[in-house]
Amino acid sequence: MPKAACRFLVTLWGFICLFLICAPSVSFCADIGNCLLCHKYPGLSRVDENGKLRLLYINEAIFNTSMHAKVKCEGCHPDIQKIPHDPAKKVDCLIQCHIVEPSSEQKFSHKDVAEFLKKSVHSPLDADGKPKPFPEDFPDCKKCHDNPLYRPMSFNKMMLPGISVTALGRCRVCHKKDDFIYQFYNHVTTRLRRSRNPKNIAESCARCHDNPILMKRHNLSTKAVYSYGESFHGKAATFLDERIPDCLDCHVNPGESVHQMLGYKNPQSAVSAQNKGRICANAECHPSATPKMAEYKVHAEFNLNQSPVRYYFTVFFIALTGGTLLPLMGIIFLDCLRRLFPNTVLIQRKKKHE
Amino acid sequence: MNKTTIIMVKNGKKFFFRFSVNQRIQHLILATCVVVLVLTGMPLKFHYTFWAQYLYALFGGIHMAPIIHRMAGIVLILLFVYHIIYLIRTIWRGQIVPLKQKEGLSIVRLIRLLLDQPLMPNFKDLKDIFDLFKYLLFLTSERPQGAQFTWKEKFDYWAPFWGIVIIGASGAIMWGKEIATQWLPGEVINFALIAHSDEALLAALFLFIWHWYNVHFSTSVFPMGTAFLTGYLSEELMIEEHYEYYIEVMKQEGFENEILPPHQGGGNDNIKKKPMEEIHSASELPRIL
Question: Is the pTM of this model over 0.95?
Answer without folding.
Answer: no
